[in-house]
Design brief:
Number of domains: 1
Order of helices and strands: HEEHEE
Number of strands: 4
Helix content: 25-40%
Structural class: alpha+beta
Largest sheet: 2 strands, antiparallel
Length: about 110
């Protein structure tokens, strides 16, 4: 999943600027994604943090509802923990992926 800045660079490269050129960007992911400080994060099941959620054929509206709930959950966590949210990132080490726990501070 590209970062917001990466999406902006792609659009700029193809000349898609406001009023100049219209581009339709389609994501075929069937799992909710939310951006925190410009970086994408997706839901994972606790026992399988490296596995994508499998929801083949899920309706767009359902994914969007899940994203809205993710946003509400993150906002609640930020309020509860004084501006911090706990996230996990995947890091590549050779041919292996590992999970790294990170706290992100969200400026109020």
């Amino acid at each position: 999943m590209p970062t917001k800045e990466a999406i902006r660079r792609v659009l700029q490269k193809v000349g898609a600027t406001p009023g100049n050129r219209r581009i339709l960007w389609t994501s075929l992911r069937e799992e909710p994604v939310i951006y925190v400080n410009g970086r994408p994060y997706v839901l994972r099941l606790f026992p399988e943090p490296l596995k994508n959620l499998e929801a083949t054929g899920i309706a767009r509206e359902r994914v969007e509802l899940m994203e809205a709930q993710m946003k509400l959950d993150i906002i609640a966590e930020i309020k509860k923990f004084d501006g911090r949210v706990l996230l996990h990132e995947e890091h590549v080490e050779g041919s292996n992926f590992t999970i790294v726990v990170i706290f992100i501070y969200i400026k109020k």
